[in-house]
């Protein structure tokens, strides 16, 4: 791997930096954490600004409206966004980082034309309807049923932990279309319009008091067969493509916030006097080294994704180490902010609580370990 920047890459950095300097002051104030309509408006407005400036879908291929940036340019984009404290993808997370890329890899040209421009412009917000009360780690056990009726599927069942379902227009939905075959072979990947009659979204309140995800009850909802991505019963394979993006590159933007949290923690340690403790400095140093190692791992995964079109299982290594590193960062933060740990107004405390969800979302640490053991190290199945 050559880590030096070419002249063209330096030029890209300079342009991006100067665009951010002019664009960011035009942003409206950030909405409150629990104002989801406000957050949708803010995040999609930023997405539109990126689109108009030619930065939307930085790593999406040009023929699908993206910038087709090289892995290095993609990293420069992230580094400059972090440096300027630019907004993160927010509610555009699913559409931009894994539903859109799955459509690029697997959908028909009609489906791509219908959805990809809207995702890039911030006109379409997506959510992910995979997990169910009885199907999380064992996702293939899902029971939400879709029965063919003419040109429609009629769908009934329940999804859970559907992030941003309240403000989403579309959902990447996994349904069971065959009950008579082994469970992985009877699943189909559908595009569900969230305004279809029969969908009841019930927000779940988290420990912060905001409702970032919901239960979704689906009662005889009709979805055209034309909304199916890939073949009927081939949904498990397509879900693996979605996961490869979700685990492979979707967490990359999170790293920006983590650098900020770590810098903030160093400041807190200096202000509180904890900095004089060599043990604390060592812990902060280890975390900084971990973050740098994770950045190098991202470069490797992103280069691999650029070569193959789909990220490999290296994403599981990143997700596992990153989420567990965030736990250690959160533990140290709670020791350093001391009584401030009682307040959800402290950024470090919010970061610590968020870290708790990272080892669960997009596949738990145990599941990632199974994947690393079986698919990378070639160990026998547990
Ligand atoms: C913040 C957040 C956002 C989310 N957003 C979405 C979303 O938008 N859409 C969506 O569909 N889902 C979403 N999820 C759900 C997430 O994918 C599931 O929570 C996750 O897959 C785990 O499933 P579960 O909660 O049912 O736990 P379970 O699968 O019941 O697991 C319970 C425990 O058992 C362990 N375990 C289970 N099986 C094994 C095994 N084979 N080997 C070793 N250990 C095992 C797990 O590691 C875990 O510790 C979200 C979750 C979080 C936390």
**What structural category do the secondary elements indicate?**
alpha+beta
Radius of gyration: 21 Å
* Strand residue percentage: 5-15%
Q: Biggest sheet, open or closed, and with what strands and sense?
A: 4 strands, mixed
Order of helical and strand elements: HHHHHEEEEEEEEHHHHHH
Q: What is the residue-averaged pLDDT?
A: 92
Number of helices: 11
Q: Numbering strands along the chain, what is their spatial order in the largest sheet?
A: 1-4-5-8
Q: End-to-end span in angstroms?
A: 34 Å
Which small compounds were modeled alongside the protein? flavin-adenine dinucleotide
Spatial shape:
globular
- Which stretches are poorly predicted, pLDDT < 50 over at least 5 residues? none
Percent helix: 40-55%
Q: Would you report the number of β strands? A: 8
Describe what this molecule looks like in 3D.
The protein is of the alpha+beta class and 382 residues long. Strands 1-4-5-8 form a four-stranded mixed β-sheet. The chain starts with 6 loop residues before the first helix and ends in a 6-residue tail after the last helix. Bound molecules: flavin-adenine dinucleotide. Flavin-adenine dinucleotide binds next to strand 1, strand 3 and helix 11.
Descriptive key words:
single chain, alpha+beta, 4-stranded mixed beta sheet, 4-stranded antiparallel beta sheet, 11 helices, globular, binds flavin-adenine dinucleotide
Break the fold down into its secondary structure elements and pairings.
Layout: H1 7-23, H2 36-52, H3 71-83, H4 93-106, H5 109-121, E1 126-129, E2 145-149, E3 152-163, E4 170-176, E5 187-193, E6 199-204, E7 213-224, E8 228-229, H6 235-248, H7 254-272, H8 278-308, H9 314-337, H10 347-358, H11 365-376
Parallel strand pairs: 1-4
Antiparallel strand pairs: 2-3, 3-7, 4-5, 5-8, 6-7
The protein binds flavin-adenine dinucleotide (FAD).
Flavin-adenine dinucleotide (FAD) binds next to strand 1, strand 3 and helix 11.
């Amino acid at each position: 791997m050559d880590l030096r920047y070419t002249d063209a890459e330096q030029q890209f950095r300079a342009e991006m930096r100067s665009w951010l300097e002019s664009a960011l002051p035009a942003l409206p104030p950030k909405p409150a954490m629990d104002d989801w309509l406000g957050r949708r408006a803010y995040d999609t407005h930023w997405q539109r600004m990126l689109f108009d400036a030619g930065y939307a879908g930085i790593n999406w291929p040009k023929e699908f409206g993206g910038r087709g940036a090289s892995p290095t340019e993609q990293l420069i984009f992230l580094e400059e966004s972090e440096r300027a404290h630019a907004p993160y993808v927010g509610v555009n997370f699913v559409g931009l980082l894994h539903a859109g890329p799955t459509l690029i890899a697997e959908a028909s040209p009609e489906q791509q034309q219908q959805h990809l421009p809207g995702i890039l412009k911030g006109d379409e917000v997506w959510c992910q309807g995979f997990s169910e009360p009885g199907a999380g780690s064992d996702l293939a056990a899902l029971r939400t049923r879709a029965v063919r009726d003419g040109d429609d599927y009629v769908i009934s069942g329940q999804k859970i932990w559907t992030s941003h379902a309240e403000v989403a227009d579309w959902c990447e939905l996994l349904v069971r279309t065959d009950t008579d075959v082994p469970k992985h072979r009877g699943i189909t990947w559908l595009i569900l319009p969230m305004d279809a009659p029969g969908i009841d979204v019930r927000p779940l309140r988290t420990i912060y008091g905001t409702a970032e995800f919901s239960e979704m009850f689906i009662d005889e909802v009709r979805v055209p067969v034309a909304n199916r991505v890939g073949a009927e019963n081939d949904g498990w394979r397509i879900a693996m493509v979605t996961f490869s993006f979700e685990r492979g590159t979707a967490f990359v933007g999170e790293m920006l916030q983590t650098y900020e949290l770590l810098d903030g923690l160093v400041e807190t340690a200096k202000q509180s006097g904890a900095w004089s403790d060599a043990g604390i400095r060592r812990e902060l140093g280890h975390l900084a080294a971990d973050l740098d190692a994770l950045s190098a791992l991202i470069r490797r995964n992103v280069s691999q994704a650029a070569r193959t079109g789909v990220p490999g299982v290296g994403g599981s290594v990143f997700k596992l180490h990153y989420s567990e590193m965030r736990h250690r960062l959160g533990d140290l933060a709670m020791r350093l902010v001391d009584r401030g740990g009682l307040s959800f107004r402290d950024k470090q405390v919010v970061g610590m609580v968020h870290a708790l969800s990272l080892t669960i979302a997009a596949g738990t640490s145990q599941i990632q370990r199974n994947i690393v053991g079986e698919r990378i190290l070639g160990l026998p199945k547990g």
